[in-house]
Write a structure and sequence with these properties.
Layout lengths: L2 E2 L4 H4 L2 H4 L5 H4 L3 E8 L5 E10 L4 E10 L5 E5 L5 E6 L5 E6 L6 E6 L5 E3 L8 E5 L5 E9 L31 E2 L3 E2 L3 E9 L6 E2 L12 E2 L5 E6 L13 E6 L4 E3 L6 E7 L5 E7 L10 E6 L6 E2 L8 E6 L4 E8 L2 E8 L4 E8 L13 E4 L2 E8 L2 E8 L3 E3 L5 H4 L7 E7 L6 E7 L8 E9 L13 H8 L3 E6 L8 H4 L9 H16 L3 E11 L1 H9 L8 E5 L5 H4 L6 H8 L8 H6 L13 E6 L7 H13 L4 E6 L10 H17 L2 H7 L1
Parallel strand pairs: 1-34, 34-35, 34-36, 36-37, 37-38, 38-39
Antiparallel strand pairs: 2-3, 3-4, 4-5, 6-7, 7-8, 8-9, 10-11, 11-14, 12-13, 14-15, 16-17, 17-18, 18-19, 20-21, 21-22, 22-23, 24-25, 25-26, 26-27, 28-29, 29-30, 30-31, 32-33, 33-35
């Protein structure tokens, strides 16, 4: 006999149960490890401990220190201020870092034997990519520099003393004139600076109206710095074009690579003979693998060391002069491997994850020195802790035992199935309610990831665990287009996002869970954010099987989106066959708005007011269309928020609790009670 469980009965039967389940209050108490850094002598690991702060509604960054063998672990820079980006000096005696302890973020150096700290910079913009010179005498970094660019000379009358006039007009002349989280951009360019490591005046090395972003690497003798940039005059229209350059201490710039596509992330070998770097082709498609190449320091004899690996690789670090570490995502988890100059690959660590709290994205990182590798690693029931491996793996931290050690979280299970549309194999996972009873069927929430060239995995997720705690089966999958399954799989959505193909990938998984007898076919719900919002909106135009939908920060009309968002310069040439006005039918077919006439599913829409990636105007189009169709809909605007509507702890809570409230409103059990 099969029984049904309502979506809320898990926590409503007795108060004693509530404290053992994951609640929204718990989100404020979560922590995770990030940005581990092994000292050059291999003895210590500095890392950033990220902690949610209920009083400031923010995530605070402090720096902690541990022995690499796990024998001790202690705070190094810990307060209500932020301390981040720890970087060891070459002799392991000093630690550079960034902090807002005295206002704007500045560069500091700490002497590890005495604990004395020096303020190194007094700059007006935020430094990043901080890098020590090999002799430890200098630190290089990148920083944004305002450009004095005025398109017009306008003669205005002199403003009388004490007069109150309207703000001056704002002029926009660039193709890339806005960015999510930053709004309309003032004319500025990112440049490379150098400053003495014991303090002094920061000196700008690069010049020109170009961006010199990303990681930096000194030559072995410290005479020049390797970096990546697009220094072409047409750089605004070349989103995947970049070359490797060097700049010396006099500001002389030389181009090292000249291939079509993107060469980036240069890292010089310890002996200075070689440079490892990433290369991606310029083929105009939505995804291409990024490979690990090694060249001579003078830019000759380039060799692809990961040609046999059908995934993107990143985060290159030399183990010695003969091997290079890298990381890659494969089938929902990250691994760290090393490759020899002859191309022989060996795995050093696996299971990296847990550096995002909200949704189960496959994010994690590592740092190595010699044979010592430190990395972030979580579990399905824990965010990232710090791990170190040398001859064996050692877990250094247990950051969330105080919060989650006494909780019963939903069990995460893998499911692999074939998409009904063409038989393509799809990997997914589902989270069971904490009090799961195999004799019952449960309501199911389908949650779709963004990107679409990203991936979910079997990792901790506060939002989805919160849903499971309310009595739902929560299902998520890595549909075609997801990364970690090879270039072919990632390109299966080329020109087809969203479409009946990714829709089939999701629905085939839903049907598989129904066939297992755990999901109730009469109580299905759907949600997703960003690219997952597109897929959710598209899905309810193709089916009426869902009781309710929550569509977060979606694209609704591709014709308008690519001409109003910050990402159009990339998406038009790489995701579509041409300009929107020349390909109206194609853009329209990919747009959920083209199917709105079919929609009957009650829909909540939620988007940040300041979103520049999927602008509010997209959400408003769908809301208005649903109202014209007399479909029950509510528009939720997140004030002062850009695309990351769950960036603050309270917003993550508000997001998931609004989703749960909307689904509860359309719960079959609640509807029957009302009748």
């Amino acid at each position: 006999m099969t029984f049904t469980a309502t979506a809320q009965d898990t926590e409503s039967k007795e108060d004693a149960r509530v404290s053992t389940h994951f609640t929204s209050d718990d989100i404020f108490n979560l922590e995770y490890a990030s940005d581990p850094r092994v000292s050059p002598n291999g003895k210590y690991v500095a890392y950033v401990r990220r902690t949610n702060d209920v009083m400031t509604d923010s995530t605070r960054s402090n720096i902690w220190l541990a022995a690499s063998d796990g024998s001790w672990h202690r705070p190094l820079l810990s307060s209500k201020k932020n301390f981040y980006s720890p970087r060891w000096s070459p002799d392991s005696k000093r630690l550079a870092y960034l902090s807002n302890a005295e206002g704007k973020p500045q560069l500091y150096v700490r002497w590890m034997d005495t604990g004395q700290t020096a303020l190194i910079t007094n700059v007006t913009s935020s430094p990043s990519a901080i890098t020590w010179s090999p002799d430890g005498k200098y630190i290089a970094f990148t920083m944004s520099v305002d450009a004095n660019e005025k398109p017009l000379k306008v003669d205005m009358p002199k403003k009388p003393k004490g007069a109150s006039w309207s703000p001056s007009f704002q002029y926009i002349t660039k193709a890339r004139y806005q960015a999510d989280g930053r709004g309309v951009l003032d004319p500025a360019y990112t440049h490379i600076f150098i400053v003495p490591s014991d303090g002094g005046t920061a000196r700008q090395l690069t010049s020109g109206n170009y961006h010199h972003n990303g990681s930096l690497s000194f030559s072995a003798d410290g005479s020049k710095i390797y970096f990546s940039a697009n220094r072409n005059d047409n750089w605004e229209y070349e989103p995947v074009e970049a070359d490797i350059y060097t700049v010396d201490m006099n500001g002389d710039i030389q181009q090292i690579t000249q291939f079509k596509g993107r060469e980036s992330s240069p890292v010089v070998s310890p002996n200075g003979k070689y440079v490892a770097y990433a290369r991606r082709s310029d083929e105009k498609v939505m995804y291409k693998n990024s490979y690990l190449y090694v060249m001579n320091a003078d830019g000759t004899e380039h060799k692809n060391l990961t040609a046999d690996i059908d995934n993107s690789v990143s985060n290159f670090q030399w183990r010695d002069n003969k091997r290079v570490y890298f990381q890659q995502s494969t089938r929902g988890l990250i691994s760290v491997s090393s490759v020899s100059l002859s191309g022989k690959v060996s795995t050093k660590a696996s299971g990296l994850s847990g550096t995002t709290l909200g949704r189960p994205y496959v994010f994690g990182t590592y740092h190595a020195s010699g044979n010592v590798v430190a990395y972030t690693k979580g579990r399905t029931d824990r965010p990232a802790d710090l791990f170190v491996t040398n001859k064996k793996e050692v877990q250094i931290t247990y950051l969330n035992e105080d919060v989650l050690g006494h909780k019963r979280l939903g069990e995460v299970k893998e499911i692999v199935y074939n998409s009904a549309i063409d038989g393509e194999e799809i990997q997914g996972w589902y989270i069971l309610p904490p009090d799961y009873d195999s004799a019952k069927t449960y309501p199911l929430i389908l949650e779709i990831h963004g990107g679409p060239n990203l991936a979910y995995g079997p990792v901790f997720t506060a939002e989805l665990q919160r849903m499971a705690a309310q009595g739902y089966i929560v299902f998520y999958d890595n549909h075609r287009g997801s990364t970690g399954y090879g270039e072919r799989f990632a390109l299966l959505l080329q020109g087809k996002y969203s479409s009946k193909y990714d829709f089939s990938d999701h629905m085939s998984g839903v049907d598989a869970l129904i066939e297992k007898g755990i999901a109730d076919p009469e109580r299905l719900y759907i949600t997703g954010g960003s690219a997952g919002g597109i897929a959710s909106a598209y899905a309810i135009g193709l089916t009426d099987r869902f009781n309710a939908a929550v569509v977060a920060k979606p694209v609704i009309n591709w014709l308008s989106k690519v001409l109003s968002a910050d990402s159009g310069l990339y998406q038009i040439p790489y995701q579509f066959p041409g300009k929107p006005w020349d390909n109206v039918e194609h853009y329209w077919q990919r747009s959920p708005l083209s199917l709105v006439g079919n929609v009957t599913t009650p829909t909540m829409l939620i988007t940040g007011v300041n979103d520049k990636r999927t602008p509010m105007s997209e959400t408003e189009q769908f809301y208005q269309a649903l109202k014209l169709q007399k479909v029950d809909a509510v528009l939720v605007k997140v004030p002062e928020s850009s695309h990351g509507i769950a960036a603050r702890p309270s917003r993550m809570i508000a997001k998931v609790e609004n989703i749960l409230a909307w689904f509860k409103k359309y719960s079959v059990a609640d509807t029957e009670k009302q009748e």
